[in-house]
Amino acid sequence: MVKRDGGGGNYDRQEQGRRKRTRVSHDTSVFVGNLDYNTKWQSLKDHMRKAGNVDNADIFTLDDGRPKGFALVVYQHPKEASRAIRELHDSELDGRSIFVREWKAQDSPDYGRAHRSDEHNADSDGSQLYVGNLSYEASWQDLKDFFRQCGDVEHADVIEGPNGEKKGFGIVRFSNRKDANFAIRRFDGFEWKGRKMEVRMDQQQQQGGRRGDREQSMDTHGGGGGGGGG
User: Fold this and answer.
1) Phi, psi at residue 3, to the nearest 5°?
2) Each residue's pLDDT tens digit, 118-149
3) Residue 39 phi/psi, 5° resolution?
4) How far is Cα 98 from Cα 119, in angstroms, rounded to an integer?
5) CA-to-CA distance for 164 and 160, rounded, in angstroms?
6) How many whole angstroms from its chain centre is CA 184?
7) Which letter, b or e, does each residue of 179-192 get, where b requires 16 or more Cβ atoms within 10 Å of its Cβ?
8) Residue 106 CA: distances (Å) to CA of 58, 62, 116, 210
């Protein structure tokens, strides 16, 4: 289960009730990604107020409280959400350049579990990408969070060798081919963490291979075993 940190744990009952009543409308809500893991909901809310009145700012976290690196921000009016996308995308918050886009149904952490096909079908419909020339500083969570701005990411892996050394490439699997194609158009040749990425369809997937058997399937990318997450 993924939790949302929308109040830092210190808000009163009235504020808690107001947050529970906040409706997530696609017209007034935006997805904010590439957040620093130390960013708090209040500093995010204050930053996003530059575009208008913010009703709610929720940073998604894992069960153990660790942040996922992305958030939901709800404005009072659609025009404020649109302004945030125009003016706050690529703005800097806590030392990181954040991305801001419209909120989609698949951005909900529960969406993938409710709408996902079985893994075999996901591995054979052209929705899995090879991402090359990755920075060695990028983790699988960084990769997943970064590509979420293009759509619903089901899985991301940064490939590692037997000794845990990163190989400089990874895979990203989307829930549908449309989002995967959009990610190729947007990020192939895009500079991230100081390196220009190569983004293309995963040839191993197209040939019917399974990434779960990486150790037996090195010939496509010349890499090692995986160190990724879902």
Assistant:
1) -100, 165
2) 444 444 467 999 999 999 999 998 899 889 88
3) -70, 135
4) 31
5) 5
6) 15
7) bbbebbeebeeeeb
8) 16, 17, 10, 24
pLDDT, tens only, 36-65? 889 999 999 999 999 999 999 999 887 778
d(CA 101, CA 121): 28
Task: Supply 97's token pair.
Answer: 């350049």
Rounded distance between C-alpha atoms, residue 228 and residue 63, angstroms: 18
The pTM is what? 0.55
DSSP annotation string for 108-177: STTHHHHHPPPHHHHTTSS-EEEEES--TT--HHHHHHHHGGGS-EEEEEEEE-TTS-EEEEEEEEESSH
Residues 6+ apart with CB under 8 A from 95: 36
Residue 202 CB coordination number (10 Å):
22
